[in-house]
Amino acid sequence: MRLSPEPFSRYSFVILLALLLGTGACSTDKNGDRVLFAIEEDLKLGEQVALQVDSTYRAKGQLLERSNPRYRTAYAFLDNIVERILSSGEVSYREEFPWKVTIINDPETQNAFATPGGHIYVFTGLIKTLDNEDQLAGVLGHEIAHADQRHTVKQLQKQYGISFVLSLFLDENSGDLQRTVAQIAGQMAGLKFSRDYERESDAFSVVYLAGTNYYACDGAAGFFQKMQALEQSGNMPEFISTHPSPGNRIHDIEQKAQQVGCSTEQKPTSGYAQFKSSLGL
Questions:
Q1: pLDDT (tens digit, 9 = 90+) per residue, 139-160?
Q2: CB 6 within 8 A of CB 176
Q3: Are the C-beta atoms of residues 141 and 220 closer than 8 Å to each other?
Q4: CA 28, 32, 34, 38 torsion: positive or negative?
Q5: CA angle, corner 203, sides to 198 and 208, nearest 5?
Q6: What is this structure's pTM?
Q7: Among 69, 158, 60, 161, which Cα is nearest to 105's?
Q8: Cα separation, 59 vs 172, whole angstroms
């Protein structure tokens, strides 16, 4: 992202920091991390970003609305995957976040992303490219991990500093905030996390899927194998442009699956074929 917040004076920063610390927000979160920002801030930012993302793709005619009966079957299929992952017992903020999945109709884009606070977006190009439900569950597990481990807020803090993130959360009625939310929303699909965050999300995807006792826990490896094949054929998928190359990630995911000792047996593909058919893919 390329955001340009106004610089803060040291005095302003101290006041803002004191205000936030006075709320008791600086504590250990459910993941065991010392964080400056309360989970409510993830929810607040995520809701505003999701509204902006929805508005953008709705204006383009690409947002597949949940209220449309035509997509009821597809959303039921996706919701079942998410519910199995959330029921794994491994998602820290299962109850706090909405965990809403939305489909964006773009058959040429093989990508997915999550906002802070658990709003997940999946492009039809990714759904079309994948072979089975286990691979899609691996992708959703990866994106759920980004939100559950609060990677977006941590990335913003690392990239732009505490004073910027403080201004984002405390000055919520300012024009600067609204412009910043629009910028974040416009670049969520292209947000690049650190390699550490990507590896962490890959590992949690294995743990989540293992906890379902339903999916092949290395489903994300199958997804990356598909992305690697596209990359090698010269058809660079969108996901590769915003995530580190598959390479060692396939090996690491398979190694994590061995470490956990979970099943890697894939489910039949017939249900996934019906899911794609319901979307006209």
A1: 999 999 999 999 887 877 776 6
A2: yes
A3: yes
A4: negative
A5: 120
A6: 0.84
A7: 60
A8: 25
